[in-house]
Amino acid sequence: MVIKCKAAIIWEAGKMPSVEEVEVAPPRSHEIRVKMVATGICQTDDHVLKGVFPNIDYPVIGGHEGAGIVESVGPGVTCVKPGDKVIPLCLPQCGECGCCLSPNANSCLKNHLYEPLQNLMPDKTSRFTCREKRIHHFLWTSTFSEYTVVPEASIVRIDNDAPLEKVSLFGCAFSTGYGAAINCAQVKPGSTCAIFGLGGVGLSVVMGCKAAGASRIIGIDINKDKFTKAKELGATECIFPQDFKKPINEVVVEMTGLGVDYSFEAIGQIDTAVTALKSCHLGHGTCVLVGEPPAGSKISIDPFLLLTGKKLTGCLVGGWKLKDALPKLISDYMKKKFNMDALITHMLPFEKIGEGFELLHAGKSSMLLGWEMVVQGHL
What strands lie across the sheet with 128-130, from one edge to the other? Predict the structure, then answer.
């Protein structure tokens, strides 16, 4: 049956989402309908709101970081059943393409980098209707709806004891940041690290560096209010760029000798990415690009920076194959192997999603929890 529920619709780029009643169609073959319990806002959702991505069709229901309970399944679904606790995956894992079959890649060929029409379901239709108009999906997740429909490649079952309002953060921010340190950089014990940007993703990078045994973890942000939390989670020191007249990469190099062993850009700004690379150790430093820059951005660097031995690498959702990784990560969380709860700062009802975006823009939160809704920001 069709379900009527609330959803936050972005009717056009640049306009705040409007919470309205939508109709959610039943799942078709190899699809799952999920009752969302918690969802989040991250910088990628803000890009959708502002119209930064050129291949997004409006109106659209955004959201890609959430957790919920399976309401019903379509024909052929075997990975979950009604009643299961699940996390929709913003990065699918089809298990069949060359990347999914490779131990060295997590960029499933069904993801939005290769499938530009993820504004619709795989059969190029939508399950959402409002005011008799078709509403587009986002990343096959659309967690800004009380009910959503996702394809089988974009969902994973998790422990039934997992607290959904908290583990929703594994859908993007925590997994991305933590994995950037553990998987993509492969931070070594005793090493030095610098994290540019201390929002939800950046703080998760801090936790990953600490878990990997880094001896020095330098947090960098233009908002001093984030420093206390960063130090709680493992940062050994924090830098406020406005305190210095010289480029911040020169400050980092002076602090560490020849630069840090690992640097992480967790904001999504090209100029910061270049600064992070320049902050790396002269002969062997690794810079990991974690934040998502606006579509069409170009990075320009002096090739000599790389000829000296520095490395520049990317990170897609922490390098995890999410179907395989999330159940284990959540199990580790429930065994208290890391303190992800410290990321949570606010709780909001779903109807106040606009306020969540405003807090994100103001840089006043790293994670916002709500209703049956989580709002999380990475700045």
Answer: 60-61, 3-10, 18-24, 128-130, 133-135
Cβ atoms 48, 124 nearer than 8 A: no
- CA atoms of 272 and 288, how far apart (whole Å): 12
Predicted confidence band at 370 (pLDDT cuts at 50, 70, 90)?
very low
CA–CA distance, 87 with 120 (Å, rounded to integer):
19
pLDDT tens digits for range 171-224 = 988 999 999 999 999 999 999 999 999 988 999 999 999 999 999 999 999 999
* Separation of CA 270 from chain center: 18
CA distance 183 to 181: 6
Q: What is the pTM of this model?
A: 0.92
Q: Is 309 left (phi over 0), alpha (psi -120 to 50) or beta?
A: left
Question: What is the phi/psi pair of residue 62, to 5°?
Answer: -85, -165
* pLDDT tens readout for residues 284-315: 999 999 998 877 788 999 898 899 899 999 99
Give the distance, in angstroms, between the CA of residue 142 and the centroid of all CA atoms in the same chain: 14
Q: Are 328 and 357 in contact (CB under 8 A)?
A: no
Strand, coil or helix: 46: helix
- Give the residue carrying structure tokens 């959503």: 148
With beta carbons less than 8 A apart as the criterion, state whether 20 and 132 touch: no
CA atoms of 70 and 67, how far apart (whole Å): 10
pLDDT for the residue 159:
94
